[in-house]
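In the previous lecture we treated proteins in isolation. Real proteins rarely work alone, and many bind small molecules. This record shows how such a complex is specified: first the sequence, then the SMILES for S-adenosylmethionine.
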Amino acid sequence: MDDRSFSAAQDFLLSVKTFWTVDVFTKVKAEYQANIGNLDNSTSETREIEDLLSDSTTFQYFAWLERHLQRFKYSGRYGINTYYSEKRNTFSNILSNEERSEDYLELTQGFELPDYYRSVDIHQHPGGLWGDEIAGLVYERGARTTTPLMGSAHKDLHHRFTDLALKDISTPKDILDMGCGFGKSTKPFYDILNESKIEAIDLSEPCLKLAAHDAAETQRKNVKFRQINALDTTYDNESFDLVTSTMLIHELPAKEIGKMFAEAERVLRPGGRMVHLDFYSLPDEFTKFIHYGHSERNNEPFMKGFAELDLHELLAEKGFINISIVPFSEAEGVDPNNHRYWRFPWTLITADKEVF
Ligand SMILES: C[S@@+](CC[C@H](N)C(=O)[O-])C[C@H]1O[C@@H](n2cnc3c(N)ncnc32)[C@H](O)[C@@H]1O
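The predicted 3D structure, ligand included, written as tokens:
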């Protein structure tokens, strides 16, 4: 497939996704609001909303577009996966872990991926983030259009997150980015913190290779990408001043989330801080209904389990103090409490390790 056809097809899909985000979502919400008086509140409210809307053509159209626009984005004639499969040889420098990126990367021979990770094609990404050597490239291209309303004029949400993570603390000497993917969440840290040492971990070899390749391009020496499980990191106790993650928690089964927090607590120095960006604050039943539906329609099976956890209680149980869980504005001008158009329930989760 030629580059122009691929770009045109992906641009078209993005336009339809924007139509879905604004027009179709608004119509579904209006239909819900017009019929809200018909809810009898006898079962769980999200279940009732489902009953209310399941025969609505507008809602069916919304749900169909949600599932299949994402499928077209990755698969089929103009899908990202198809494009990169055909272009494998062009990217052999990244895929083969060229010498230049070796300093930035540590992979583990015979690394065992958890079952939950292999059991689903996350985000409808064929083969998941680990199944094919091109998975990092595919994920990077897909991530460019995850939030269609952000546009390119805004400061990227990862930079907004980095600013908040570093706010009100002295410059951390050692930072751990858990679930770093292809390094998008790590780069804003290693770009601005020349004096800090940054460790970035993930399960996905193809993503880590791409992250290391990009870091090698900048020639920064303060970052290392390693294939390590966030649930059992093997770092020494009290090794970091700041532990972060962006969009990792909702990808973990609910029963594993406590393990990740316990691990973060263990590797933090006393007085250290943990900051996560994820999808948690669901201000009303309709937003919850839409979010749980997204979890099913987009192959993100653990989103609901995470959203239903009592996060404050869990963090307190793991020993954290100064716990803050607040809606996050993913782009300039976006009211984080407003779900007028479809958007993720972005939430900033901050907690500190006590100084004894
Ligand atoms: C949605 S991506 C976010 C990546 C990156 N933080 C970003 O914001 O672009 C979630 C990442 O978590 C990784 N992941 C899932 N479970 C993990 C685990 N147990 N340990 C480390 N990484 C994990 C996935 O491989 C994936 O790269």
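Summary for your notes: The longest strand covers residues 268-279. The chain has a mean pLDDT of 93.
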